[in-house]
Amino acid sequence: MSKLIFEKHSLNHASWLPALKKSEEELLRKIPGRFVRGAAPGLPEVSELDVVRHFTNLSQKNFCVDANFYPLGSCTMKYNPKALDAIASSTSFSQIHPYQDEDEIQGALKILYEMQLYLSEITGMDEFTLQPAAGAHGEFCGLLITSACHKLNGNKKTKVLIPDSAHGTNPASAALCGYEVVQVATNPKGLVDVEDLKKKLSDDVACLMMTNPNTLGLFEQDILEIARLVHKAGGLLYYDGANMNALLGISRPGDMGFDIVHLNLHKTFAVPHGSGGPGSGPVGVKKDLIRFLPAPRILKEEDKYLFEKTAPHSIGKLRSFFGNFGAIIRSYAYIKALGREGLRGVSENAILNANYLKARLKDIFEVPYGGTCMHEFVMSAKAQKKRGVRALDIAKRLLDFRVYAPTIYFPLVVEEALMVEPTETESKETLDEFVTILLEINREIHENPQTVLDAPHTTPVGRIDEVTAARRPNLRYKRELKQEAGNKKQEVVIVK
Amino acid sequence: MQYISNTEQDKKEMLEVIGVSSIAELLSAIPKKLKSFELKIPDGVSELELDRDLDETGHLNKNFKYHIPYLGAGNYDHFFPAVVDRLALRGEFITAYTPYQGEASQGTLQSMYEYQSLICELTAMDVSNASMYDGASALAEAALLALRSTGKHKILIPSTVHPEYRQVLKTYLSFVESQIIEIPMKEGALDPDALSKAIDSESAAVIVQQPNFLGILEEVQAISDLAHKNGALLIACVNPISLGVLTPPGEYGADIAVGEGQPLGNPVSFGGPHFGFFTVKDELLRKIPGRIAGMSVDKVGRRAFVLTLQAREQHIRREKATSNICTNQALCALKGAIYLTLLGKEGVRRLGLLNLQNAHESYETLARIKGVKEFSKRPFFNEFVLFIHKDKNHLKERLSNHRILGPLLVERFYPELKSGYLVAVTEKRTKSDLQHLASAIEESLDPPFL
Question: Which pTM does this prediction carry?
Answer without folding.
Answer: 0.96
